[in-house]
Amino acid sequence: MINTNEILKKYDLKLTKTLGQNFLTDINIIRKIVDTGEVSPSDFVLEIGPGIGAMTVELAKSAGKVVAVEIDRHLIPALSETLGGFSNVTVVNCDIMKADLKSLVKDWTGPLKVISNLPYYITTPIIMMLLESEIEWDTLVFMVQKEVAQRMAAPPGNKDYGSLSVAVKYYSEPKLAFTVSRNCFIPKPDVDSAVIKLKKRVLPYTQDVDKEFFFKVVKASFNQRRKTLLNSLGLQPWVKGGKEGIKNVLVKLGIKENVRAEELSLEEFIKLTKELAHTSNPEA
Ligand code: SAM
User: Fold this and answer.
1) pTM for the complete prediction?
2) Cα–Cα dist 228/226, whole Å
3) Per the structure, how many domains does the chain have?
4) Which of 6, 37, 200, 217 is within CB 3.0–4.6 Å of 141 for a Cys-Cys bond?
């Protein structure tokens, strides 16, 4: 295990809060994250934000290839030292949101996994960008703020269930792996964390749905989450027949009239979207 304090001192590094720089110092947690990803020599691992490389070293020991994308150029000399002994690691100094993901992962035929202790200021944009990206990922393992992990994994009817839960389930099967105390980091963050694993969903029912319209329906449904669908979707200008139109659709689908978005499963949202596609003007 690399000595975080020693490296920070040696390279005179000041950690930046705005870049979400809370570094993991507990080797057991690092190994548990790598184990959660079931990393093996046939895997390509993309790590977002290696910091000074504490987890990168453990990933490199198990994976065939690791590409680590770090935005902060001040960390690159330290990374060169900690990762010096590994020929299967490439460090790329750029913003993951601007990276050309396809070119980063090209030439690899085995499973592609993204494993990261994510910077918390940009968690949801990074996750949505990866879920929607064209790269053929197999598994995503993220350490995120505990509440965000709970929202992603929440089932219908749960208080944490919302549009993020539906979006994550559209693309993957999420599983909350374990929680991590704030004491495992330098510096100590204000929140506790959790590790979540997203396994790529083998699509049967998301295949023939208009994705853009699906997310429009989900967003409008959760806009005012305490309202019934009759009152949230029924007031959208693109729904033909307003509340009456929604009522007819719900009856046809065998869903109760006073249902709220937080009670609807992914499958029901899919059915609802398909039905509304016939009876609405998705462009409006
Ligand atoms: N992997 C290290 C660990 O576990 O100790 C560091 C994790 S720290 C929570 C997040 C890392 O992401 C920091 O090194 C930070 O500089 C980097 N980072 C922040 N925003 C980034 C971005 N947009 N693209 C790439 N890296 C980013």
Assistant:
1) 0.94
2) 7
3) 2
4) 37
